[in-house]
């Protein structure tokens, strides 16, 4: 499989960023060469100890539960350490063919409609979200041995919302959004050249929100809360959205 095949062509149309699964030739090659690889062996056995999560203390709605945990990550109650940057989250997307990719983004808001983050609409993640409007977000709050998985359908946020959030960004980040053709292959000086160009263009003026920049919202149909415990006997509770709009809560085996 060529590198082009692996990473897709950013200049390509939005519908098929990453074509096709790995070819058999590539898999055979990997199997042949695997014995030559030096194994990085990790034998640590960290023990996680979070406050126990029980059905009795779970909120009836996952949004409420998320709010409680997020507030505890920011301002922890006695005995729990604070979480550095709890809004940092791993967002997983996939192509129409089902090839996944993941990367970190910053959660910028959450309400009954879903979980919002902002990005470039021509980036790899956005091209994948256009081709396959489903995503998963994973929060890992190491300090508190907590994990949350959100799975749902996605939609772009209203233009007005993107513009009003963009207006709150520092000027440098606003100009960066104009300069960066996110996920595109570029030359060594392209970014600086483009930044210089947009600095000139917006000199003495407010920086508008570019058309190619804005938010995505994940409207969840599944949210799981994971709380780490000793001997890998963690607590897991999954909320699943039912046809009648109610959330069904199940405990899952760790
Ligand atoms: C902690 C952290 C937060 C980030 N936040 C964002 C973000 O909010 N939006 C964004 O577009 N990229 C963000 N990035 C960069 C992305 O991880 C990624 O490199 C970029 O969006 C391009 O991804 P893509 O090529 O898969 O589209 C962040 C990276 C880190 C490590």
UniProtKB/TrEMBL annotation:
Which top-level group of life is the source organism from? Eukaryota
Q: Which cofactor does it need?
A: FMN
Q: What is its EC number?
A: 1.4.3.5
In this chain the Pyridoxamine 5'-phosphate oxidase N-terminal domain maps to: 83-190
* Alphabetical UniProt keywords: Flavoprotein, FMN, Oxidoreductase
Do you know which InterPro entries this protein is assigned to?
A: Pyridox_Oxase, Pyridox_Oxase_N, Pyridoxamine_oxidase_dimer_C, Split_barrel_FMN-bd
Q: Pfam families per the record?
A: PNP_phzG_C, PNPOx_N
Q: Supply the NCBIfam families for this chain.
A: pdxH (TIGR00558), PRK05679.1 (NF004231)
HAMAP family named in the record: PdxH
Recorded protein name is pyridoxal 5'-phosphate synthase
């Amino acid at each position: 499989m060529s590198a082009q095949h692996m990473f897709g062509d950013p200049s390509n149309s939005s519908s098929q960023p990453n074509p096709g699964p790995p070819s058999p030739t590539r898999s055979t090659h990997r199997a042949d060469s695997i014995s030559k690889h030096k194994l990085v062996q990790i034998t640590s056995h960290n023990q996680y100890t979070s406050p126990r999560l029980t059905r009795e203390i779970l909120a009836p709605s996952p949004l409420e539960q998320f709010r409680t945990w997020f507030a505890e990550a920011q301002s922890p109650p006695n005995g729990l350490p604070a979480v550095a940057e709890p809004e940092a989250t791993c967002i997983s997307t996939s192509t129409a063919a089902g090839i996944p990719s993941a990367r970190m983004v910053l959660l910028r808001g959450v309400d009954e409609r879903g979980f919002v983050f902002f990005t470039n609409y021509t980036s790899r993640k956005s091209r994948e979200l256009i081709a396959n409007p489903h995503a998963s977000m994973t929060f890992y709050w190491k300090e508190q041995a907590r994990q949350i998985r959100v799975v749902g359908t996605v939609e772009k946020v209203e233009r007005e919302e993107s513009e009003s959030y963009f207006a709150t960004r520092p000027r440098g980040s606003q100009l960066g959004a104009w300069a960066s053709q996110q996920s595109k292959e570029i030359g060594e000086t392209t970014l600086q050249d483009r930044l210089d160009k947009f600095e000139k263009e917006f000199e003495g003026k407010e920086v508008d929100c570019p058309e190619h920049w804005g938010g995505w919202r994940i409207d969840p149909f599944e949210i799981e809360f994971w709380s780490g415990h000793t001997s890998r006997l963690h607590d897991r509770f999954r909320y699943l959205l039912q046809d009648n709009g109610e959330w069904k809560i199940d405990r899952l085996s760790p």
